[in-house]
Write a structure and sequence with these properties.
By secondary structure, this protein is of the alpha/beta class. The protein has three domains: 99 residues, D-Maltodextrin-Binding Protein, domain 2; 78 residues, Periplasmic binding protein-like II (D-Maltodextrin-Binding Protein, domain 2); 114 residues, Alpha-Beta Plaits. The chain has eleven helices and 15 strands. Helix 3 packs parallel to helix 4. The longest helix is centred in the last third of the chain and has 23 residues. The radius of gyration is 23 Å and the shape is elongated.
Length: 309
């Protein structure tokens, strides 16, 4: 069993996200050519963990990741990794901007650079690649001198390309969230996220509101709500929901139990630590708060008189 597989080839942002995690970077890793390939490999026990993109701050959710997790596998999210995204335009050494006739990249990455392409390369055509690293590899292998790839510096270095322009994304605060998928549920940390998919019994007025009221009644904060087709019939949708908290939390567990009783089906996709720079500080504060509360409760219980008294 391969320890870690990721959306490849070598040099993708998925590999960058993997390498940002010291424990994962220390393991043997293998690139696979598509997101479903990564998820199916883990689901079929060919790999222990997989790393795939799930959401971009500009282009939104990666639908193929959501759909594969919801409909084709029984995997659970183990953690999330937020990676700052800096995109560049890469070419073979000696190629100038005016010579470029085709731009290759992963569609989601190219979409983040629409403004740059419109201003600088209005006549160039776009060719979709399986990944940003695949685009860089294709440009490097090609005999043509009118090709460019949009991607990251890691891929450019691996495939020997020259940087023609850096930071070409339209929005500077660009981030992609990656998830590490596997089996089992990580222990609660005090700063966690839970992801579920809710399928309705029937499409009727107020059905979504009824679901949302379960979270509101328990003051559980939703961080994401997105509808996706169920793949069954036209107009039939399910809802991907991210909430703050862990399934081990009393309120979260009670909410999910009630939802499971009221709707047709709830698919649990994981409870896992929230990424971000403030994560360690928030988890430390929660741990201290629980420790203090345990001490307080223990002191009170120590005062309970025995029955024979």
């Amino acid at each position: 069993m391969t320890p870690v597989v990721f959306f490849g080839p070598h040099g993708t942002f998925a590999e960058e996200a993997l390498l940002s995690q010291p424990d994962l970077a220390a393991l043997d890793r293998e690139p696979l050519s598509s997101i479903p390939d990564v998820l199916v490999a883990v689901n079929d026990h060919a790999a222990e963990l997989g790393v795939v993109p799930i959401e971009n701050s500009i282009e939104g959710s990666v639908s193929v990741t959501l759909d594969t997790l919801a409909f084709e596998t029984d995997l659970l999210i183990q953690r999330e990794v937020d990676l700052p995204i800096s995109l560049g335009l890469f070419v073979k050494p000696g190629v100038r901007l005016a010579e470029i006739r085709q731009v290759l990249s992963f569609p989601i990455a190219a979409a983040q650079c629409r403004g740059y392409l419109k201003r600088k390369l209005p006549r160039a055509t776009f060719v979709a690649s399986h990944s940003t690293a695949d685009a860089a590899a294709t440009v490097a292998r090609s005999k043509r001198t009118d090709l460019a790839a949009i991607g990251n510096k890691l891929a450019a270095e691996i495939y020997g390309l020259k940087t023609l322009a850096s930071d070409i994304e339209d929005h500077p605060e660009n981030q992609t969230r990656f998830v590490v998928v596997g089996r089992g549920i990580p222990a609660p940390t005090g700063h966690d996220r839970t992801t579920i998919v809710c399928f309705q019994r029937a499409d009727r007025p107020g059905s979504l509101l009824a679901m949302l009221q379960e979270f509101a009644a328990r003051r559980i904060n939703l961080t994401k709500l997105e509808s996706r087709p169920t793949k069954r019939i036209l107009g039939d949708y399910c809802f991907f929901i991210d909430i703050e908290g862990h399934i081990n939390d009393e309120l979260v567990g009670d909410c999910l139990r009630t939802l499971a009783a009221k709707v047709a089906h709830v698919k649990f996709l994981g409870s896992y630590p929230v990424a971000g720079l403030d994560g360690p500080a928030r988890r430390s504060a929660v741990t201290k708060a629980w420790r203090d509360a345990d001490t307080w409760l223990g002191d009170l219980r120590a005062q309970v008189r025995a029955q024979d008294e």
